[in-house]
Specification:
Length: 53
């Protein structure tokens, strides 16, 4: 859901050449990455575990 909002804001910014939504886009991307990290942590996946093998 957040990814769709980010894509829509980005497309609107590119089409209209109005980059005032940039701070909201970056903020939503940060929230999305935090949610993805928490989800991976709950699945007990560790990046270092994959990179060490």
């Amino acid at each position: 859901m957040i990814a769709i909002v980010v894509v829509v804001l980005s497309v609107i910014s590119i089409i209209t050449e109005n980059y005032d939504f940039g701070k909201y886009t970056i903020g939503l991307l940060g929230i999305m990455f935090i949610i993805m990290g928490v989800d991976e942590f709950k699945k007990d996946r560790n990046f270092l575990r994959f990179s060490a093998s």
